[in-house]
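Narrative progress, year one. The postdoctoral researcher (J.K.) led the effort to move from monomer predictions toward full complexes, under supervision of the PI. The following entry was the first complex the group processed end to end, covering 225 residues in total.
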Amino acid sequence: MEYKMIGPEHCDQVLEHLRRNFFADEPLNKAAGLCQNGSSCAALESHCAEAILDRMSVMAVDAKEQEQGVCKVVGVVLNGILKPGDTAKALSKLDTNDDAGFRKIFDLLHRHNLKYNLFEHFDVACMFDVRILSVDSSYRGQGIANELVKRSVAVARKNGFRLLKADATGIFSQKIFRSHGFEVFSEQPYSKYTDVDGRVILPVEAPHIKMQQLYKAICGGADQD
Ligand code: ACO
Protein backbone atom coordinates (compact mmCIF):
# COMPACT_ATOMS: atom_id res chain seq x y z
CA MET A 1 0.00 0.00 0.00
CA GLU A 2 1.22 3.51 -0.79
CA TYR A 3 0.12 6.66 1.02
CA LYS A 4 0.15 10.01 -0.80
CA MET A 5 -0.94 13.57 -0.20
CA ILE A 6 -4.09 14.42 -2.16
CA GLY A 7 -3.86 17.36 -4.56
CA PRO A 8 -6.66 19.04 -6.56
CA GLU A 9 -5.59 16.87 -9.53
CA HIS A 10 -6.79 13.77 -7.62
CA CYS A 11 -10.26 15.17 -6.96
CA ASP A 12 -12.12 13.03 -9.54
CA GLN A 13 -10.44 9.81 -8.40
CA VAL A 14 -11.15 10.57 -4.74
CA LEU A 15 -14.81 11.40 -5.42
CA GLU A 16 -15.20 8.18 -7.39
CA HIS A 17 -13.83 6.25 -4.39
CA LEU A 18 -16.24 8.07 -2.05
CA ARG A 19 -19.25 7.41 -4.31
CA ARG A 20 -18.51 3.67 -4.16
CA ASN A 21 -17.69 3.48 -0.45
CA PHE A 22 -18.40 6.42 1.83
CA PHE A 23 -21.55 8.05 0.48
CA ALA A 24 -23.80 5.06 1.09
CA ASP A 25 -21.88 3.37 3.96
CA GLU A 26 -21.25 6.12 6.50
CA PRO A 27 -23.80 5.74 9.35
CA LEU A 28 -25.53 9.15 9.00
CA ASN A 29 -25.60 9.03 5.19
CA LYS A 30 -27.19 5.60 5.45
CA ALA A 31 -29.79 6.82 7.97
CA ALA A 32 -30.66 9.82 5.80
CA GLY A 33 -30.79 7.68 2.63
CA LEU A 34 -28.43 10.23 1.12
CA CYS A 35 -27.50 8.20 -1.96
CA GLN A 36 -27.21 4.72 -3.40
CA ASN A 37 -23.86 2.98 -3.71
CA GLY A 38 -22.01 4.39 -6.73
CA SER A 39 -24.31 7.35 -7.27
CA SER A 40 -23.29 10.95 -6.84
CA CYS A 41 -24.40 13.48 -4.27
CA ALA A 42 -23.70 17.04 -5.34
CA ALA A 43 -23.85 18.62 -1.88
CA LEU A 44 -21.52 16.08 -0.26
CA GLU A 45 -19.18 16.17 -3.23
CA SER A 46 -18.70 19.91 -2.99
CA HIS A 47 -18.10 19.54 0.79
CA CYS A 48 -15.35 16.99 -0.04
CA ALA A 49 -13.86 18.99 -2.92
CA GLU A 50 -13.59 22.04 -0.65
CA ALA A 51 -11.51 20.04 1.88
CA ILE A 52 -9.21 18.76 -0.89
CA LEU A 53 -8.34 22.37 -1.83
CA ASP A 54 -6.75 22.84 1.61
CA ARG A 55 -4.07 20.27 0.59
CA MET A 56 -3.99 18.50 3.98
CA SER A 57 -5.65 15.24 2.85
CA VAL A 58 -4.11 11.81 2.42
CA MET A 59 -5.00 8.78 0.28
CA ALA A 60 -4.05 5.11 0.26
CA VAL A 61 -3.47 3.67 -3.20
CA ASP A 62 -3.04 0.09 -4.31
CA ALA A 63 -0.20 0.35 -6.80
CA LYS A 64 -0.86 -3.24 -7.99
CA GLU A 65 -4.45 -2.41 -8.98
CA GLN A 66 -4.47 0.00 -11.88
CA GLU A 67 -7.25 1.34 -14.08
CA GLN A 68 -6.02 2.94 -17.33
CA GLY A 69 -2.55 3.38 -15.81
CA VAL A 70 -3.93 5.12 -12.72
CA CYS A 71 -3.48 3.51 -9.27
CA LYS A 72 -6.66 2.54 -7.45
CA VAL A 73 -7.62 4.78 -4.52
CA VAL A 74 -8.57 2.44 -1.65
CA GLY A 75 -8.81 4.86 1.27
CA VAL A 76 -8.92 8.57 1.97
CA VAL A 77 -8.89 10.96 4.86
CA LEU A 78 -10.08 14.43 3.86
CA ASN A 79 -8.79 17.14 6.16
CA GLY A 80 -9.65 20.81 6.01
CA ILE A 81 -8.66 24.00 7.76
CA LEU A 82 -11.44 25.30 10.00
CA LYS A 83 -11.58 28.93 11.11
CA PRO A 84 -13.92 30.65 13.59
CA GLY A 85 -17.09 31.67 11.75
CA ASP A 86 -16.86 28.89 9.14
CA THR A 87 -19.42 26.67 10.88
CA ALA A 88 -21.97 29.46 11.41
CA LYS A 89 -21.58 30.43 7.74
CA ALA A 90 -22.04 26.81 6.60
CA LEU A 91 -25.16 26.48 8.79
CA SER A 92 -26.71 29.63 7.32
CA LYS A 93 -26.03 28.31 3.79
CA LEU A 94 -27.82 25.01 4.58
CA ASP A 95 -31.27 26.58 4.19
CA THR A 96 -30.65 27.07 0.48
CA ASN A 97 -29.54 23.43 -0.03
CA ASP A 98 -32.28 21.41 -1.68
CA ASP A 99 -30.97 18.01 -0.50
CA ALA A 100 -33.10 17.18 2.57
CA GLY A 101 -30.82 14.31 3.68
CA PHE A 102 -27.73 16.51 3.54
CA ARG A 103 -29.56 19.21 5.52
CA LYS A 104 -30.53 16.73 8.29
CA ILE A 105 -26.93 15.54 8.69
CA PHE A 106 -25.20 18.90 8.56
CA ASP A 107 -27.78 20.65 10.71
CA LEU A 108 -26.92 18.14 13.44
CA LEU A 109 -23.15 18.49 12.98
CA HIS A 110 -23.01 22.28 12.59
CA ARG A 111 -25.35 23.03 15.52
CA HIS A 112 -23.43 20.64 17.74
CA ASN A 113 -20.13 22.30 16.87
CA LEU A 114 -21.53 25.76 17.55
CA LYS A 115 -22.84 24.61 20.94
CA TYR A 116 -19.61 22.85 21.94
CA ASN A 117 -17.23 25.45 20.62
CA LEU A 118 -13.65 24.19 20.50
CA PHE A 119 -12.32 27.58 19.33
CA GLU A 120 -13.49 29.22 22.54
CA HIS A 121 -12.40 26.35 24.75
CA PHE A 122 -8.86 26.05 23.37
CA ASP A 123 -8.38 29.66 22.24
CA VAL A 124 -7.02 28.75 18.79
CA ALA A 125 -7.30 30.72 15.54
CA CYS A 126 -7.71 27.65 13.35
CA MET A 127 -8.12 23.89 13.60
CA PHE A 128 -7.13 20.87 11.57
CA ASP A 129 -10.54 19.35 10.80
CA VAL A 130 -10.62 15.62 9.97
CA ARG A 131 -13.81 15.61 7.87
CA ILE A 132 -14.05 12.35 5.95
CA LEU A 133 -12.48 8.96 6.69
CA SER A 134 -13.23 6.23 4.18
CA VAL A 135 -11.79 2.86 3.19
CA ASP A 136 -12.85 0.71 0.23
CA SER A 137 -15.15 -2.05 1.49
CA SER A 138 -12.91 -4.79 0.10
CA TYR A 139 -9.82 -3.38 1.86
CA ARG A 140 -11.30 -2.88 5.34
CA GLY A 141 -9.82 -4.51 8.46
CA GLN A 142 -6.22 -4.13 7.23
CA GLY A 143 -5.28 -1.05 9.27
CA ILE A 144 -5.67 1.46 6.40
CA ALA A 145 -7.90 3.86 8.36
CA ASN A 146 -5.49 3.66 11.30
CA GLU A 147 -2.60 4.63 9.02
CA LEU A 148 -4.58 7.49 7.41
CA VAL A 149 -5.37 8.99 10.83
CA LYS A 150 -1.76 8.55 11.98
CA ARG A 151 -0.56 10.37 8.85
CA SER A 152 -3.15 13.13 9.33
CA VAL A 153 -1.74 13.83 12.80
CA ALA A 154 1.73 14.07 11.24
CA VAL A 155 0.46 16.50 8.55
CA ALA A 156 -1.20 18.65 11.22
CA ARG A 157 1.97 18.74 13.29
CA LYS A 158 4.15 19.54 10.29
CA ASN A 159 1.88 22.45 9.38
CA GLY A 160 1.98 23.89 12.90
CA PHE A 161 -1.61 23.17 14.01
CA ARG A 162 -2.20 23.12 17.77
CA LEU A 163 -5.58 21.40 17.59
CA LEU A 164 -7.18 18.64 15.54
CA LYS A 165 -10.87 17.81 15.59
CA ALA A 166 -13.14 15.14 14.14
CA ASP A 167 -16.87 14.46 14.29
CA ALA A 168 -16.85 10.67 14.35
CA THR A 169 -20.25 9.25 13.48
CA GLY A 170 -19.79 5.52 14.10
CA ILE A 171 -18.26 3.34 16.81
CA PHE A 172 -15.40 2.11 14.61
CA SER A 173 -14.18 5.55 13.58
CA GLN A 174 -14.55 6.67 17.23
CA LYS A 175 -12.30 3.81 18.32
CA ILE A 176 -9.74 4.67 15.63
CA PHE A 177 -9.50 8.34 16.63
CA ARG A 178 -9.24 7.49 20.34
CA SER A 179 -6.43 5.06 19.61
CA HIS A 180 -4.48 7.98 18.10
CA GLY A 181 -4.81 10.11 21.22
CA PHE A 182 -8.03 11.97 20.36
CA GLU A 183 -10.29 12.67 23.33
CA VAL A 184 -14.05 13.05 23.48
CA PHE A 185 -15.12 16.68 23.95
CA SER A 186 -18.87 16.13 23.54
CA GLU A 187 -21.40 13.61 22.31
CA GLN A 188 -24.77 13.63 20.57
CA PRO A 189 -26.95 10.52 21.00
CA TYR A 190 -28.91 9.95 17.78
CA SER A 191 -32.03 9.07 19.78
CA LYS A 192 -32.09 12.65 21.11
CA TYR A 193 -31.90 14.37 17.73
CA THR A 194 -35.64 14.71 17.24
CA ASP A 195 -38.16 16.91 15.43
CA VAL A 196 -40.89 19.03 17.09
CA ASP A 197 -43.09 15.92 17.43
CA GLY A 198 -40.32 13.97 19.19
CA ARG A 199 -39.57 11.78 16.16
CA VAL A 200 -35.95 10.70 15.65
CA ILE A 201 -34.62 12.62 12.62
CA LEU A 202 -31.81 10.20 11.73
CA PRO A 203 -32.64 6.56 12.57
CA VAL A 204 -29.02 5.41 12.65
CA GLU A 205 -28.53 1.64 12.64
CA ALA A 206 -26.90 -0.21 15.55
CA PRO A 207 -24.16 -0.54 16.68
CA HIS A 208 -23.80 3.22 16.06
CA ILE A 209 -25.65 5.15 18.75
CA LYS A 210 -24.03 8.58 18.95
CA MET A 211 -21.80 11.12 17.28
CA GLN A 212 -18.62 12.03 19.14
CA GLN A 213 -16.85 15.34 18.74
CA LEU A 214 -13.21 14.44 19.34
CA TYR A 215 -10.12 16.59 19.64
CA LYS A 216 -6.40 16.18 19.90
CA ALA A 217 -4.19 18.95 21.23
CA ILE A 218 -0.61 19.13 20.00
CA CYS A 219 1.70 20.79 22.49
CA GLY A 220 5.19 21.37 21.12
CA GLY A 221 5.30 17.88 19.62
CA ALA A 222 5.00 16.23 23.04
CA ASP A 223 1.67 14.48 22.39
CA GLN A 224 1.29 10.72 22.28
CA ASP A 225 -0.01 8.96 19.15
N1 ACO B 1 -15.86 -4.24 13.08
C1 ACO B 1 -15.03 -4.33 14.14
N2 ACO B 1 -13.92 -3.56 14.31
C2 ACO B 1 -13.65 -2.68 13.35
C3 ACO B 1 -14.46 -2.52 12.19
C4 ACO B 1 -15.61 -3.35 12.09
N3 ACO B 1 -16.46 -3.26 11.04
N4 ACO B 1 -13.93 -1.54 11.40
C5 ACO B 1 -12.82 -1.12 12.05
N5 ACO B 1 -12.66 -1.80 13.21
C6 ACO B 1 -11.58 -1.61 14.19
C7 ACO B 1 -10.43 -2.54 13.87
O1 ACO B 1 -10.55 -3.77 14.54
C8 ACO B 1 -9.21 -1.78 14.33
O2 ACO B 1 -8.99 -1.94 15.70
P1 ACO B 1 -7.47 -2.16 16.27
O3 ACO B 1 -6.70 -0.91 15.89
O4 ACO B 1 -7.68 -2.34 17.73
O5 ACO B 1 -6.96 -3.37 15.56
C9 ACO B 1 -9.61 -0.32 14.10
O6 ACO B 1 -11.05 -0.30 14.06
C10 ACO B 1 -9.03 0.26 12.83
O7 ACO B 1 -9.28 -0.62 11.77
P2 ACO B 1 -8.79 -0.32 10.30
O8 ACO B 1 -8.54 -1.62 9.62
O9 ACO B 1 -7.69 0.70 10.30
O10 ACO B 1 -10.11 0.34 9.71
P3 ACO B 1 -10.59 0.22 8.19
O11 ACO B 1 -9.42 0.46 7.28
O12 ACO B 1 -11.33 -1.04 8.03
O13 ACO B 1 -11.60 1.48 8.05
C11 ACO B 1 -13.65 2.70 8.43
C12 ACO B 1 -12.58 1.77 9.04
C13 ACO B 1 -12.97 3.97 7.88
C14 ACO B 1 -14.62 3.10 9.54
C15 ACO B 1 -14.36 1.94 7.28
O14 ACO B 1 -15.12 0.88 7.84
C16 ACO B 1 -15.29 2.81 6.43
O15 ACO B 1 -14.87 3.41 5.43
N6 ACO B 1 -16.59 2.89 6.81
C17 ACO B 1 -17.61 3.66 6.06
C18 ACO B 1 -17.39 5.17 6.20
C19 ACO B 1 -17.35 5.63 7.65
O16 ACO B 1 -18.18 5.26 8.47
N7 ACO B 1 -16.35 6.50 7.95
C20 ACO B 1 -16.18 7.13 9.27
C21 ACO B 1 -17.18 8.25 9.47
S1 ACO B 1 -16.60 9.49 10.63
C22 ACO B 1 -15.62 10.54 9.68
O17 ACO B 1 -15.57 10.42 8.48
C23 ACO B 1 -14.79 11.62 10.37
